[in-house]
Structures are given as structure tokens and as C-alpha cells.
Amino acid sequence: MPLAHPTHDMLAAYASGAASDGVALLVSAHATYCGRCRREIARLEAVSAAAMRSEPASPLSAGALDSVMARLEAVAGASTTAAPPARDAMLPAPVAALTGPYGSVRWRFVMPGVSRAEIALGGDEAVNLLRVRPGAGVPAHTHTRQEATLVLCGALRDRGRVYAKGDVALAGADDDHHPRAEPGADCVCLTVLSGSLRFTGTFGRALNIFAE
């Protein structure tokens, strides 16, 4: 069972359909590992459905159905009330539905020890798979908004805490952090970044030209 989870607000937004596509993907992927969050999402879905039934019907806007169907296809999430869907050895089903199996992922070099593969969902967020070699890491940085990271394999050390498979690490605008992969195995993560990232420190500031 994961020890670090999405926030209640993230779960509630997912259950009500209000989450961004990136957050919806991260929550649905985390839920494949986490029975506690699947149960909470099911409870929130029931509350949301009851609230909708109590409201008077209103006409749908033009294209509303097409928008909902496109969103469902984008996140490729399985039912949260059922048992976790089957997944390949590395990627949970909602992620693999978008990227293909892990062995077919096309990685792009970012810096020594760090590669990424973009997941294009069409929103304002940057959604990526990140592969970090043992002992390597991302230089110290801050964010203008929120960065959410779901560990898919290996382990990630961030701000004195180790995040293992299925755990979610959250960093906000007040966090200046330097996440690193723990020794022993590659750490593969799903990252969802809203806003922008700014590197800090002497070496990190030189990287900001590439982050624009």
C-alpha cells in the first residue's frame, strides 16, 4: 500500500470530473496501486452522483458530449470501483494506454542520468514519464505552481523522504527541492507540472535557458 497519496482535493476533482487531464491521469494511475484511494474515489463519486440527482436538469452546451468522450479517451482510466486493472511490469494501465508498453517508450535525453518521454494530453500542464538512473537527480528547482510526481518503479528521495512505488510526491511554489533516485535501480516516475519550473543554485541557473 502506498504511503503518500494525492490530496483530498485532487481525489474529489477526479471523482467529479473536474480534474485537469494530467491530474486525472496521475490519480487514476495511483489508484491502480492503492485500495484506500480507490475506495475514497468510489465514495466521492457516489456523493457527486447524489448531488447531481438532486439538482434540476439543465441543457448541455454544444459539443459537451464530444468533450466528455475525448477526456475519457485521453486519460484512459479504468473504473475506480473495480479491482485494479492488469498492467505491464513497469507501467500502470492508464499510463500504458497512452504510451504503449514500457519497452516501447521513446526516451529523450535531458541531462546526465535523466531522460523523459512526453505524454501529450493537450492541456496547459507538462505531463512526462521521467527515468532517473540510480544516484542521479534533477538539479534544485522551484515551481510557479504545483508539481505532482507518481513513482512507478524504483524509489525517489525528496526533501528528506523516500517515495516508493505508488507514492505521490507534491511540491508547490514554496518548495525548492532536489529530487534524486535512490541507489539500486532506475526510478521511473509520472510527473505533472502546472506552471513553470525554475532551476536554482549556481549550476541550476545555467539550465534555465533550456527550461524556457
Automatic annotation (TrEMBL):
Signal peptide: none annotated. SUPFAM superfamilies: RmlC-like cupins. InterPro entries: Anti-sigma_ChrR, Anti_sigma_zinc_sf, ChrR-like_cupin_dom, RmlC-like_jellyroll, RmlC_Cupin_sf. It holds the Pfam family Cupin_7. Residues 104-192 form the ChrR-like cupin domain. This is Anti-ECFsigma factor, ChrR. The lineage of its organism: Bacteria, Pseudomonadati, Pseudomonadota, Alphaproteobacteria, Rhodobacterales.
